Amino acid sequence: MKTNDIKKGTRIQLRNGWQGTMKDNAKGNTRMAEVEGFVTEMGSVYSHDIVAAQGPDGNWIPIEHTPAQIKLRKIAG
Question: pLDDT tens across 45-67, in order?
């Protein structure tokens, strides 16, 4: 699954282990999500930080990043 295929309302897993819920249907290098971390906040997350999305059956589906997202991850550190 690619990050552009993640729809609003889908549960996501971030690279740092936190989970969240997608809040938009946008495409690109940033997406809007409600993230449950130390506190629950809504804001932009980089697409390259999303590592898995929860499918309709409840299983986690790994995310395939585009070459542009991989390049941005290397720049962002």
Answer: 999 999 999 999 999 999 999 99
